[in-house]
Amino acid sequence: MKPINVGLLGLGTVGGGTLTVLRRNGEEITRRAGREIRVMRAAVRNVDKARALAGNLPLTTDPFEVVTDPNIDIVVELIGGLEPARELVMQAIANGKHVVTANKHLVAKHGNEIFAAAQAKGVMVAFEAAVAGGIPIIKALREGLTANRIEWLAGIINGTSNFILTEMRDKGAAFEDVLKEAQRLGYAEADPTFDIEGIDAAHKLTILSAIAFGIPMQFDRAYTEGISKLTREDVKYAEELGYRIKLLGIARRAENGIELRVHPTLIPERRLIANVDGAMNAVLVRGDAVGPTLYYGAGAGAEPTASAVVADLVDVTRLHTADPHHRVPHLAFQPDQLADTPILQMDEVRTAYYLRLRAFDRPGVLADITRILADSHISIDAMVQKEPAEGEEQVNIILLTHVTVEKNINAAIAKIETLDSVAGTVMRIRLEELTGR
Predict the structure, then answer these.
(1) The predicted structure's pLDDT at residue 326
(2) What would you report as the CA-atom Rg of the chain, rounded to the nearest whole angstrom?
(3) What is the 3-state secondary structure (H, E, C) of 188-208?
(4) Which of 1, 78, 109, 238 is the least crowded, having the fewest Cβ atoms under 10 Å away?
């Protein structure tokens, strides 16, 4: 059977890994796909730099030569960013080519436009590598769990932030020190904003939520809060209370909409996902029929991500001749069946909380705090008061609450911070038990 011809846009970490895996495992991949998958050419920034890896593969510095090449069946976009990636993908679709991409930013921001164009043209867009590297979470949601009504999912989907939080816990180090170490080791970029402020995780969560619940991509509705304000004290106190802090992406069905949020979260240490350490990723999904399922693995890296890219290439190759109306839909649900379920405002989200505050060690302080919480309909689950250091008048008080509405906790915190007996601001971290709720 005629080979499927592939054009690569980008031959960096993931592009190079993709080429390496295709060459090394070519025979096995052909057996799985039913026909040979052949890389015909690649677009790169620097031909001389890429030549050692590319060998005799034709190279160009103009990516539009790849997307307009009539001999190429599948374009693999691995250059990242929004532009020119969006333009190149749209041009490839207009030219009747299937697309495979690892670009979570592009899919989260422009997925609705891209999928509509692909549907109209009868071509496929595959994006397994856009979320959690080599973990086949998109395929699991789109196909493996298709019998289920997904109730919620929660994921550690940014390796950089997970590495930082693990090091803060294991070494008792400050955030700033661990960030510098992560940059030195190559886990964090020189500008780490997307990772440490939760933006990268929000891109991935947007994609997962769309597939899980059959809704359009809505990145601009996702609540995003990073880890840069966390202290080593909070990590230590959480550990003492039997919890670990992770940057979680959470999407959950609620009575009046869908929760879509990324933020630091306390998780009971007995949960498997709480023990996912270092730069690893994991996604916990609860379906109504199957219950909770956990997907764990490397969330980044050349060959783990290439594994997902090549899996997409195999899927597209298998379905290349299939009737476009009978392929697996991009977002798992038929395009005309996407729901308009609203994304909840963060104020309406229901969860539990960890609160840490500094208060003067004198009678009546705890009574004032608990009264404010009670007036806001907030129930306390646990409370710890630390002994003051020698010569100090202030103590750390840590509170764990039962589940409540976010707007209630915000109102209570505002009132607590006005008390003369409370110094500074209240540290708030959300808490999820990740059970059947």
Answers:
(1) 63
(2) 24
(3) CCCCCHHHHCCHHHHHHHHHH
(4) 1
Q: What is the pLDDT of residues 306-349, one digit of tens each?
A: 999 999 998 998 887 666 766 767 776 778 888 899 999 999 99
* Residue written as token pair 């915190």: 413
Q: How many angstroms separate the CA atoms of 72 and 38, rounded? A: 10
Q: Which residues contact 205 (CB under 8 A, 6 or more apart)?
A: 155, 157, 222, 249, 250, 251, 260, 262
Q: Are 133 and 299 in contact (CB under 8 A)?
A: yes
Q: Is 181 helix (H, G, I), strand (E, B) or coil?
A: helix
Would the pTM of this model clear 0.90, i.e. be above it?
A: no
Q: Cα separation of 274 and 272, whole Å? A: 5
20, containing H or E segment: helix 13-24
Q: Can 204 be counted among the known catalytic residues? A: yes
DSSP 64-123: HHHHT-TT-SEEEE-S-SSTTHHHHHHHHHHTT-EEEE--HHHHHHHHHHHHHHHHHHT-
Determine the straight-line distance between the first and last CA of the chain, rounded to whole angstroms: 51
pLDDT (0 to 100) of residue 362: 81
| Average pLDDT rounded to a whole number, residues 350-359 | 95
∠ CA 346-348-352 to the nearest 5 degrees?
85
Q: Which of 97, 109, 204, 246 is catalytic?
A: 204
For residue 25, the 8-state DSSP code is T
Assess contact for 336 and 390: CB atoms under 8 A: no
Question: Do 120 and 211 contact (CB within 8 A), yes or no?
Answer: no
**Residue bearing the bigger pLDDT, 242 or 320:** 242
Could you give the CA distance from residue 128 to residue 279 in angstroms, rounded to a whole number?
A: 19
d(CA 400, CA 205): 26
Residue written as token pair 């001999």: 71
Q: How far is CA 141 from CA 100, 137, 232, 316, in A?
A: 18, 6, 36, 17
Range in 101-110, 355-364, 387-396 with the lowest mean pLDDT: 387-396
123 Cβ contact list (under 8 Å, min separation 6): 93, 96, 97, 98, 99, 324
